[in-house]
Amino acid sequence: MKSSESWLQTASLEEIKRGYMEEGAAYTCVCCGYRTEAGIIYPEEGVLYEAARYMRVHIEKIHGSVFEYLLELDKSVTGLSDVQRGLLAQFHEGKKDVEVQKALGIGSASTIRNHRFVLKEKERQAKIFLALMELLKSKDTQAPAEWVSSVTRHGHTIHPGSFDITEQDREKVLNKYFSEGTGGPLTTFHMQQKHKYIVLTEIAKRFDPERQYSEKQVNELLKEVHDDYVEIRRYLVDYRLLEREPDGSRYWLGSHTDEQSAGDGKQERKEKGEQENMDRRKELQEQAKEVKTEAGVYQIRNERNGKVYIDSTLNLKTINGQRFMLQMGSHLNRRLQAEWNEYGENAFVIEVLETLKPDDNPYYDPKDALAKCLNRWFEQLEPYGDQGYHGNK
């Protein structure tokens, strides 16, 4: 089981599908914890990338794809049997039932169709289970306290109290997303959670605290804010900025809205928020310790003919992803992939050639050091032509 699963646990469903989390000016890979930062240009094979684009290059190069990485996780994490993992890999390649049957050597084409049905049934059951858990949270009085004090969106738990929001933050965010003023429409609702909370508290001010609304009336009011009024309504309820009857027949301004204007208990809430921030920082620090990474150079060597493929990575724990990409037929080096297909997996070994030693020098650049290390191995092994899978020197 990969230690980087802790990143998956803190990511939302959308972030997992995308492959990275966006936190301010930083982007974190949910597969391995590798980070890029806005404002830094990342070179890759002669091309320069900004942070977000390079994160996608990183995922493709190191993990193949998010789908491939997730499929490689232990069955205790995915809940999938070995057969189901093999089937999903084949389905992901767009193969027909007959082709899948031949590739995996199980049953007949009708057996594969039955497996497809079972997987779809598993998906439907998962949706119902998630819905049940969401509904349970509003009723279970014995539930952990965080069920009440936090918001869960698409499997991602958010603590509004942990947002460190200054008046300057509020002004900046509101000016950005309400181009015609806070009484006008919202330009977009695609934003990070902290900004969502600021925007939603402003939208909540449009509701009369002495009045109750029907769902239709809530929708009509929110249509003036944004076309995706249903999503905004759900977030308002999730953050308890709006309260409602269980059947959705009545809505009214929630208790959390009062906190925006009430002075009583302000210091207590501030201290609680600071404590939650400290706890969150400690949690992230512990996660960072678990994901200790070592940079280095590795090779994939064909023991039949001695040819090698050489590359470097900032996290040597991810090199097994190279094997997975080759197994799936999706490796970026087509020459290596072709011979893998020809000779078979047992003809190849993946080996670490050199691990980059950490350096406390404040001017030390690990990426530059890694590039020089890789160049040395290229000069030593010359993996070109009959000796390797790289192009001409």
If you had to describe this structure to a student in words, what would you say it looks like?
- It is a single chain.
- This protein has 393 residues and is α+β, with helices and mostly antiparallel strands.
- The protein contains 18 helices and 13 strands.
- β9 and β10 form a beta hairpin.
Key words describing this protein structure:
393 residues, alpha+beta
Q: What is the strand tally? A: 13
Annotation field: number of helices: 18
The biggest sheet, with number of strands, parallel, antiparallel or mixed sense and barrel status, is:
3 strands, antiparallel
Q: How much beta, percentage-wise?
A: 5-15%
Question: Percentage of helical residues?
Answer: 40-55%
Q: Which structural class do you get from the secondary structure elements? A: alpha+beta
Strands of the widest sheet, in order across it, are 1-2-3
The Rg value, from CA coordinates, equals: 26 Å
Give the low-pLDDT segments.
144-157, 261-267
Broad shape: globular
Average residue pLDDT: 79
The termini sit apart by 39 Å
